[in-house]
From TrEMBL:
PANTHER family: UPF0153 PROTEIN YEIW
Domain of life of the native organism: Bacteria
Protein name: Zinc/iron-chelating domain-containing protein
Gene this protein is translated from: yeiW
Length: 84
């Protein structure tokens, strides 16, 4: 599965525990990454400062569903069930 351009769910729903430029403590679940554009595109895409966790994310139907809304709900659910 390829990412849906302009979705941005993976930049909103999950927490990111590693530092992000401008977000040294990472990002809490449900908070929009400050590098997500108004078009829901990553402003760090292809740049060396993009966190490894973001670059390693692979779209999958079980995580992303078939719509942006499903993706936000599914990723949020995965965030809750895998929280330590």
């Amino acid at each position: 599965m390829n990412c849906r351009e302009g979705c941005g769910a993976c930049c909103i729903a999950p927490s990111i525990s590693t530092p992000i430029p401008g977000m040294p403590e990472g990002k809490p679940a449900g908070e929009r990454c400050l590098h997500l554009s108004v078009d829901n595109l990553c402003d760090l895409f292809g740049r060396p400062e993009r966190p490894d966790v973001c670059g390693s994310f692979k779209a999958d139907i079980e995580v992303c569903g078939s719509t942006r809304e499903e993706a936000i709900n599914l990723i949020g659910w995965w965030e809750q069930v895998t929280a330590a």
